[in-house]
TrEMBL record:
GO molecular function term, any single one: acyltransferase activity, transferring groups other than amino-acyl groups
CDD domains for this protein: NAT_SF
Domain N-acetyltransferase: 12-187
Species, as recorded: Actinocatenispora thailandica
Transmembrane segments: none
PROSITE patterns: GNAT
Pfam hit, one: Acetyltransf_8
Protein's UniProt name: N-acetyltransferase domain-containing protein
InterPro entries the UniProt entry points to: Acyl_CoA_acyltransferase, GNAT_dom
């Protein structure tokens, strides 16, 4: 796998996750406000859970790149990316071709007081610059629960478009939830420099 260096956009930094971040992740993923959108309030994660899940990823035995976003030097969010060809069963379930080097992403902001401040879009742009510019991705996919309008707006802001509503895609808090599969490609992606130049 090809790793990521530190990515910087002014006061926002995205860097590789390290095991010193596990306690922060445990705090985020036991917060009911975060869990209401990511994971579910019925599945809080302890430090032991976080260590068990993310240690293999940091060691490279699970092909998922884990990243931490920092705002003014303070950890504020988590992102991960992976090649769909490493998860062919998932790709097949979502009807994604693995022939055009697609990547998948997931993310959340762990500080609810910063929701709605535009950090999600900025985090996405930094990582998309890396995926499209460095890794040669042609397409990047992610999903959002159909009622998570805030996330969908953040994704659309950087060029993701809703391509397919996947029924019962995720069991969230005991309920099978529909999710929008959203895709960005080189033609739809709004690069950071282009976005900054927009009046």
């Amino acid at each position: 796998m090809t790793g990521v260096d530190v990515l910087v956009d002014g006061d926002l930094t995205v860097r590789p996750m390290v095991d010193d971040d596990f306690a922060t992740m445990a705090g985020w993923l036991s917060d009911p406000r975060v869990l209401s959108w990511f994971g579910g309030r019925d599945r809080p994660m302890s430090l032991l859970d976080i260590t068990a899940k993310y240690t293999p990823r940091l060691a490279g035995t699970v092909p998922v790149h884990c990243l931490i976003a920092e705002y003014h030097g303070m950890p504020v969010g988590y992102l991960q990316y992976y090649r769909w060809r490493d998860f062919t069963a998932d790709a097949a379930a979502l009807r994604l071709s693995t022939l055009d080097n697609p990547y998948g992403m997931d993310l959340f902001i762990g500080r609810p007081e910063l929701w709605g401040a535009g950090l999600g879009s900025r985090m996405l742009r930094l990582v998309l610059d890396h995926l499209f510019g460095t890794l040669g991705a042609r397409r990047v996919a992610l999903s959002a629960m159909s009622h998570n309008y805030r996330a969908q707006r953040a994704y659309q802001k950087v060029g993701f478009r809703r391509v397919r509503l996947v029924p019962d895609a995720e069991v969230h808090e005991g309920v099978a939830r529909d999710e929008w599969l959203m895709v960005a490609d080189r033609n739809s992606y709004t690069h950071r420099d282009a976005a900054d130049a927009t009046p």
